[in-house]
Design a protein that fits this description.
- The chain is α+β, with helices and mostly antiparallel strands and 341 residues long.
- The chain has two domains: 245 residues, 3-Layer(aba) Sandwich (Aminopeptidase); 68 residues, Barwin-like endoglucanases (Beta Barrel).
- A five-stranded mixed beta barrel has the order 11-14-13-12-15.
- Strand 2 and strand 3 form a beta hairpin.
- The longest helix is centred in the N-terminal third of the chain and has 15 residues.
């Protein structure tokens, strides 16, 4: 059984190793940026950031027997502020017809948009390559634990939840969309623009055109892939769609990656959320495959969760002994349960 918990400063080395596999805006392979993300998460779990919408949370999945971090994921309470807006392209279809030529065309059109009081964002999901096909499904645990935490603390998050998925990329992480679009308006290489955007998005607002862009002018391969999900992100897409996320005809202005969204109250995991007290002993009846979590604000590990069989009966839940031990939960303690079935 694996333990999901809040990130600690001592996880820095393991997290840097994972970040080098993804190197995204949410989980950059830059030591200074990563240190800032860890510190922000520690302060967020400790409620030391007064405004809950300024918080972000990093979860790590640990094999407690080997004391080894197998993966991570994160939640940003609000992606998009007045200082650093959430930036995107809306993708729409526009029709044109000429009666003189009797020609009819449908064009994909991109319109630059911003959120200054944006949605909650889930991201930073990385699993160590050697663990991805494990029967314990670490990717599923790391993806869904974010929704368990949101269910436990709904008032800390926005009503819309966003996931920006990775698109198909070329060798060395080359973005064909950036080469066809962003590079022409900024003169920057994709890695440089991506890194700069982590600290300041002003150049996007100033240099990207306010007028509509016709994707017809891009190379055919680029236009055909607008909104497509890259092979490494297919698993994440399936997990998100299974709980209620859908593509919303928006893409990232850097790499063209699709935006998937869901309303908080429409996410099936949150609808199934229950709180219960740990029962004394066990009836022997089989429980449901679930994520079970606890919040302990006064302890070093302020959040713990496990994937376990859990049998709900009234106000009580029966848990295997190993699950209760990893959670640090004793008889009568209140825990949070999200069924995965």
């Amino acid at each position: 059984m694996l333990l999901i918990r809040d990130v600690q400063r001592g996880d820095r080395g393991a997290l840097l190793h994972l970040a080098r596999m993804l190197n995204s805006v949410n989980l950059p392979a830059d030591e200074r940026d990563l240190d800032g993300i860890i510190e922000r998460s520690v302060a967020s779990f400790g409620c030391r950031i007064r405004n809950p919408l300024r918080r972000s949370y990093v979860f790590v999945l640990e094999d407690p027997r080997r004391h080894r971090v197998l993966g991570c994921s994160m939640v940003i309470a609000q992606h998009g502020t007045r200082e650093s807006p959430c930036t995107f392209f809306d993708v729409a279809e526009r029709e044109h017809y000429s009666s003189t030529l009797d020609r009819h065309f449908r064009h994909q059109v991109l319109t630059l948009g911003f959120h200054f009081d944006g949605p909650t964002e889930v991201g930073g999901l990385v699993v160590s390559p050697g663990e991805r096909r494990s029967p314990e499904q670490p990717g599923k645990q790391l993806s869904y634990v974010r929704f368990l935490y949101m269910a436990m603390h709904r008032n800390r998050f926005r009503q819309t939840v966003l996931a920006e998925l990775m698109p198909p990329l070329g060798k060395g992480g080359r973005s064909e969309f950036w080469e066809a679009c962003g590079r022409r308006f900024t003169g920057l290489d994709y890695p440089d623009a991506d890194k700069m955007s982590r600290r300041n998005k002003e150049f996007i607002q100033q240099l990207f055109p306010a007028a509509d862009l016709y994707a017809t002018l891009f190379p055919a391969r680029v236009g055909e892939r607008l909104g497509a999900v890259g092979p490494p992100a297919e698993g994440a897409r399936r997990l998100l769609e299974a709980v209620g996320f859908r593509y919303v005809d928006r893409i990232d202005p850097f790499d063209g990656g699709p935006h998937y969204e869901a309303r908080l109250d429409e996410i099936s995991l949150l609808r199934g959320h229950r709180t219960a007290r740990v029962a004394r002993g066990a009836s022997g009846k089989v429980g449901a495959d679930s994520l079970v979590g606890v919040s302990r604000p006064g302890e070093r590990l302020r959040f713990r969760a496990v994937r376990s069989l859990a049998r709900l009966a009234g106000d009580e839940v029966e848990l295997p002994r190993e699950a209760a031990a990893l959670l640090g939960a004793e008889t009568g303690d209140r825990v949070h349960v999200v069924p995965l079935e």
